[in-house]
Design brief:
about 375 residues, alpha/beta, Aspartate Aminotransferase, domain 2, 2 domains, 4-stranded antiparallel beta sheet, globular, binds pyridoxal-5'-phosphate
């Protein structure tokens, strides 16, 4: 490489570009995508209609303030619209938060197997990402607090976390917050909040309402089934909302995306169907995969993290190749430092049943599996 050309800021070339879940099997054969935690039941029909309606207005800029969308989020989740900022996916908001609150010489803390975007966003801002160890693939409040230094500017916690599926209780979340200095920003990424039923779970909205240094992010990509449109939002203290509104692009959420998101929020029936589907099939898949003799980590999301034995031919990489050969695409976990595991999203009923049969054939031979 020439040493004379333009050089990016320090840290940028340390970034390995984020690789999303694969959508096709090798050779481009059609396959069932279980690699990106998308909603298996698809988008709300009302959201699809609202999206199509916007076709006639594609020459018009969107509402830069997402006024109708923030009002609809406020109604649905009982929040003040003026404390909400919408973004092109919560990924954009994660990037903007880091850009605004951390820079060179400063630290961004996250958990060892936390969502990858935190590390990438920190590097992109020239800040130093710091990983705190977990306990049994679960965030460890004490380990996080022990790594806070005078350089720590923000702490990211995915709750529940992707890819581990684990979560901190409301009580643990409050203990984490209570241990942080007042000038450290706690970002609670609750991308899967709408799917969680555990009684001791809190999404972080209450904490973000009360505390001047807590923000929570949410998305339309998971339960709401609108991943293609890139819509997320954050809720936080007025001062932080003001900062993000200064650094975001003026038209960061497209017009069709805003319209579809409003319609999706109002379609409570579709939301309930998505939740009911996950409530039924997540434990079903977990139990069947456990029955096969694999280690399945407890998950409250719409996916399972599954460990494979280390023996060649039976390991996670071999399982991935075998699944893909049978038209099922799991998520490779090497980038997360979990090369012995695969992450598998809950699919439609037929996909879930097929997944179990293909895994059975992989582990115990085709004679032990149903028709493949
Ligand atoms: C999927 C996911 C997101 C990304 O959401 P977008 O709104 O699609 O950008 C954020 N955080 C976690 C933990 C996720 O799993």
């Amino acid at each position: 490489m020439s040493t004379l050309g333009p050089r990016p800021r320090p840290g940028i070339l340390e970034i390995s570009p984020y690789i999303g879940g694969k959508a096709e099997a090798e050779g481009g054969r059609p396959a069932v995508k279980l690699s990106a935690n998308e909603s298996p039941i698809g988008p709300s029909p009302k959201a699809m209609a609202a999206y199509r309606d916007e076709a006639e207005r594609l020459h018009r800029y969107p509402d830069g303030g997402c006024t109708a969308l923030r009002a609809a989020i406020g109604r649905r989740f009982n929040l003040e619209p003026e404390r909400i900022v919408c973004g092109a996916g919560s990924d954009e908001l994660i990037g903007l938060l880091v850009k605004a609150y951390a820079g060179p010489g400063e630290e961004v803390l996250h958990t060892a197997h936390g969502f990858l975007m935190y590390r990438l966003a920190a590097l992109a801002a020239g800040a130093h990402p710091v990983a705190a160890p977990e306990r049994d693939l679960k965030a460890d409040v004490d380990a996080l607090l022990a790594r806070v230094t005078s350089r720590t500017r923000m702490v990211f916690l995915a709750n529940p976390n992707n890819p581990t599926g684990s979560y901190l209780t409301g009580e643990e979340l409050r203990r984490l917050h209570a241990g942080l200095p007042a000038d450290v920003l706690l970002v609670i990424d609750a991308a899967y909040a709408e799917l969680v039923s555990a009684a001791d779970y809190e999404s972080g909205l209450a904490l973000a309402r009360e505390q001047p240094n807590v923000v929570t992010t949410r998305t339309f990509s998971k339960l709401f089934g609108l991943a293609a449109l890139r819509v997320g939002w954050l809720y936080g203290p007025p001062a932080i909302v003001d900062v993000i509104n200064r650094v975001r692009g003026p038209f960061n959420v497209s017009r069709p995306a805003q319209a579809a998101a409003v319609a999706a929020l109002e379609d409570l029936e579709h939301q309930a169907a998505a939740k009911a589907h996950n409530d039924r099939w997540l434990p079903w898949l977990r139990d069947r995969i456990l029955d096969l003799g694999l280690v399945v980590h407890p998950s409250v999301g719409n996916f399972l993290l599954v460990d494979f034995p280390p023996e060649p031919g039976r390991d996670a990489r071999a399982a991935e190749v075998f699944l893909e050969g049978h038209g099922l695409i799991p998520r490779n976990m090497a980038a997360y430092g979990l090369p012995h595991a695969l992450r598998i999203s809950v699919g439609l009923e037929a996909d879930n049943r097929r997944l179990v049969e293909v895994l059975r054939a992989f582990l115990h031979g085709p004679a032990h599996a149903g028709a493949l």
